[in-house]
Amino acid sequence: MLDDYLKGIFKTAKQADATEPSYYPALKVLLEAFADSSGHAKAHVTVLPKKTEAGNPDFRVWDGKQHIVGYIEAKPPTQENLEVIETSDQLKRYLHTFPNLILTNFFQFRLYRDGKLIDSAQIARPFTLYKLKSIPQVEKEKEFIELLEKFFAFSLPKTYSAKSLAVELAKRTRFLKVQILGEMEQEEAEKKGDLLGFYEAFQKFLIGTLTKDTFADLYAQTITYGLFAARTKAKNGFNRKPAFELIPRSIGILRDVFHYISLGDPPAQMEWIIDDIAEVLAVANVEAILKDREGRDPIVHFYEPFLAEYDPAERERRGVYYTPEPVVGYIVRSLHRILKDVFGRSDGFASTTVRVLDPAAGTCTFSAEAARQAVTEFSEKYGTGAKASLIPDHILKNFYAFELMMAPYAVGHLKVGYLLEEFGHRLQENERFQLYLTNTLDWEELEESKPQWQTR
User: Fold this and answer.
1) Which of 132, 109, 128, 106 lies closest to 119 in space, CA to CA?
2) Among 16, 141, 156, 409, which is disulfide-ready with 403 (CB 3.0 to 4.6 Å)?
3) CB–CB of 432/385 below 8 Å?
């Protein structure tokens, strides 16, 4: 196997115009031969596209459907000192994002697990190729086979806490944002493309001040939290293909985007990292995470660690910090009492003449608690059967929330949806909680977007 591989490398090197990608076919054949001979016959080796400057690993090893084994980053055979590459920004980014990665110059192979070097094997000497102009002799074949066994045996952990899942998603979402920006640059050069169309639509109907960078940020988070929303509904297996049908219809903007992501033909430059995000969600026990409530909020402590990993500066700038549930409860109970005692609304938040608006909703913690307070008050006074009409006739009509950032917007919809299901009300196809993705401080933008983007 290695003899044939090195013969292929030698043959390529004899070509005067050989570049790094010229050696890819030989490595691809080697990896596939190993997979076939070692019980990993379902493994597929895909060369990832590099048509933009965004950058991505050169190879993805996966099962062709969902399960991703890992990634391989190749450097030209003339780059003999791979330790230097380890310190580059590019490789640091890869090591931080992908838990199973091989770095190679086609002669030396270095295996990293969760960012740390765990194995290395040098199968031949490059100088034999370049100085002696002959086929290199195989060295350390046993060590190389052991390294590949470790690489192919990798699988993502199935146990995540809400925090650790949020961190893993954030790493990949940040990488996806870079890919989106690269793809947009390519589309601008070609003066056509789907992403530019989405950018113009978002700018026109949602946030008038949107820049390409903030759009890429918004779009990347839209994809990740769309996949998350879909995963909460999936029962048997999960990938990006069925996501469109699984996303709650109440989160219309996610369904609009996923009609393209799931049913369309997204660029290969983005597709592989979207599949990676879906793989993380597929193996995670999302149901257990949502049941592990640490109180009554089913998605408590999920978004804050996501943003802390994804963009800590943005978290600081936006003031995204989770308000403790006891504080939220105290504020909502106080307002409930004020509505009764000061404003004469005998049912507090449950009074049909009360309108509720949270102008900076975040993950809808306050809106959800106000809805809970309303349902509790109404049920205690008029019986649990009466709450069936309270939800569609009051909460879904008179409770409003605005949020500027996509991830908390999606999480907020999920949170309220789960809360209403807890009260026995499953949102119907024509129902939605009135949480809108918009900038509260930009009234002109809100006025223009409201009648046109009906699927917010």
Assistant:
1) 109
2) 409
3) no
| Residue pair 257/219 in contact by the 8 Å Cβ criterion | yes
Report whether 273 contacts 135 (CB < 8 A): no
The H or E element that residue 73 is part of is strand 68-74
Tens digit of pLDDT for each residue in 342-377? 999 999 999 999 999 999 888 888 999 999 999 999
CB 195 within 8 A of CB 180: yes
Residue extents of the structural domains in the chain: 2-152, 162-312, 317-449
pLDDT of residue 248: 77
The length of the chain in residues reads 456
Token reading at 426: 């499953």
CA dihedral 8, 9, 11, 17 (to 10 degrees): 140
Mean pLDDT for the chain overall: 86
> Residue 301 region, left (φ>0) first, then alpha (ψ -120 to 50), else beta?
left
Strands 399-403 and 434-437: parallel
* Concatenated DSSP letters of 353-369: T--EEETT-TTTHHHHH
Overall average pLDDT of the 126-144 stretch: 86
H helices of 232-295, in order, are 243-246, 252-263, 268-283, 286-291
State which CATH number among 3.90.79, 3.90.1570, 3.40.50, 3.30.70 fits the domain covering 2-152.
3.90.1570
Q: How far is CA 303 from the centre of its chain?
A: 12
Q: Chain-centre distance of CA 133, in angstroms?
A: 47
The three-state secondary structure class of 159 is: coil
| Euclidean distance between CA atoms 293 and 46, whole angstroms | 40
Q: Is the pLDDT of residue 181 over 70?
A: yes
- Rounded to whole angstroms, the Cα distance separating 456 from 444 reads 17
